[in-house]
Structure formats: C-alpha cells, structure tokens
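From: lab user (bench 3)
To: helpdesk
Subject: output format question, protein + zinc ion

Hello, I'm new to running complex predictions and I'm not sure whether the block I got back is the full result or only part of it. Here's what I submitted:
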Amino acid sequence: MKSFSISGRALLGDDFVQATLRIADGRISAIQSGIDRAADICVDGWIAPGLIDLQVNGAYGFDFTADSATIPQVAARLPATGVTAFLPTIITSPLDAYPRFLRDVENAAHDARGAQVLGAHLEGPYLSSPRVGAHNPNYLRAPNRAELETWAGSSLVRVATVAPELPGALDLIRELVARGVVASAGHSNASYAQARAGFDAGITWGTHLFSSTPPFAHRAPGLVGALLSSDIPVGLIADGVHVHPATLKMVFRAKGARGITLVTDAMMAMGMSPGRYTLGDRQVIVDATVARLNAETLAGSILQMDAAIRNVIEFTGCSLAEAITMASATPARVLGLANKGRLAENCDADLIVLDNSLRVEKTIARGEMVYERQS
Ligand code: ZN
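Helpdesk reply: Thanks, we reran it on our side. This is the complete output you should expect:
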C-alpha cells in the first residue's frame, strides 16, 4: 500500500476535525477537510499522530541493556501499543558496553520494521549514587569528557540522562548539546540552584519526573521544583504507581500538554506475564501492575503507551487531543523533529487509529501499515 487515503476525525493542530489524509511515499501528501466515503480507510473512531516513546528499556521478554541485538524484535511489536517511533534506552552499564549498544541501535535504525528506531537514550552512567534507583551502583562514573567518544560516539545518540550536580557534569552537558544530543536531568540529588545551573548549561528535558530524585519540598524545591517552575518538558510514567494520579493532575495543571512527555520506561516484562525478570544485570520481580527491584525501588514499568493515554485522561481530566500531544507532538519537539508528532502535509505518515474506547485499531509508520487489530 504505497499510496492510500484515510478519512475520519483527525487531530489537526489542537482539535479533532473531519478530514481526509492522502498518504504517499511515507509522507502525508495532502489533507482535505471533510469525510471522503470513497477513502481506502474510513475511520469510525479517531485518527491521531503516532506515539513517540523516549524511554524504552525493553519489552516482550527482551532487555536492551543485556542484549541490544533484540531491538528489532521489540520495534516489530510496539505498533500494537500505538508507538510509531522510540528511543531504545540503556541503563547504567560498564563503559565498554556502550559501543556495542550504539552499533545495534544504528543497525536497528536502518533495518528494523515496525516502530522507527530514532536513536539511543543513554540513561547513565553519570548519575547520583544516592539516586541510582534500579541501576547497578557499581557502574556509576564521574562525568568525564574524555570518555564521551566511547560513551556517546554515535550521531544516533538522541538523549543522555545526567545528574547535573556531579562535578564535571556541566561541561559534559555543554559538550552533549554541542553534538546535538538532548541533555536530560534525572537520577539526581540536585538542589534547585544546581538544577538551574544544569538548565543554563543546556538541559532541555527532565527524565521521569519524581522518580529517583528527592521528593519536592516547598523550602527546598530541588530538581523537581526547578523543572516544574521552568519551560522544560518533563517525562512522566502515567501508570498510576510511579506517580500518584493526583500528582499527575498537578503536573498537568502546571505544565500543560506541551510541557509533558508521556514515557513508558518499559522493561522486558512489558507485554509478558507476571514473574521474575531482569533489568540490565539486576533481578526484578513483576506482578500485574509493576516491576520492582525490592520493596522500595521500582525497576522500570510494564506500562504500554496506549494505556498511558487512557490513564492520563482519567487522572487529569485532559482531552484526548491533549493526551495525544503529550505522547506525540511534545516528544517530537523535545527531539527537534519537525516532521513527526503531528498530522500535517509533508510530515512523516506516522499515524494511529483509535476506536471509541481509545484502543489501538491500526498503526501506520512511515506510510506502512505496521499493525492491524484482529477483530
Ligand atoms: Zn530511570
């Protein structure tokens, strides 16, 4: 199906309107207002831009930190959750693990079918030791520009999560930004002033707000307060466990849909049954709702992106258009991708069809039908 048309209620700009989209050669070639009953696909539910997940550790039984050669297997299946593009993520690892991970990401970016591999998210190893979360503390390192070529020596590194308060972190952040990498603050003990210094050095995203940082305190707002009082978008894991629904609502009221990127932070048990799994080289126990390292520490999530959309609507009372924005336009903007995250002429033909209960019916990535729900 190289060229086809799809007609129904489509998210154009900030609203759903009746429209007909023509798709040709992987792009949206034209958009006309109104329904065309003769279109190749007539949609009863909703047509929205494809979802973009900036933090995926693995899924469907595969862990990218342990075996990044499995990225294509996950890319093939993520469209069932509405995801058309994503960043495979490596958690804190020994320095010599990174070149191989980056090679596998490059190969997957060229060859993988299904959801597009946009590049790598390097979460660590320059993180705060008290805020290491489920990462292995033995692999943490002090920020070091001389290591940058080994750690991030690929043009496909899109995001690097760093704790800005560490000695040398500001220099590292400036170097990342100079290379076109999005520097993100996370797994951090930063004070408000240290966080602001990180923003001045070039931080433009906040990794999974609230997780692996000190809790917000009104006299010592820290990284959480610095992010919430800034224009910097924040990642949120909207499973109702990582962040309480009321807190999510508060963040939505403070930041709006353009200030939030929904992420799954999914680990290998996403799409699998409860049981024992791993994240990197750590043992994790997964029940029906969460993945845990131990009683206190969550270890990624088993959230799927389409569920995140439904959850955020339920928790915050936002509109479907706003929820979709948090999972498409905002992450595309964080990455500086003008051709993704929206339905507009000449944009990539990444789109999803949701039914009236907001379940994924069809997913189209770069003009190819990559998922169709079996009725
Ligand atoms: Zn994390």
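A quick orientation on your result: The first helix runs from residue 71 to 77. Let us know if anything else is unclear.
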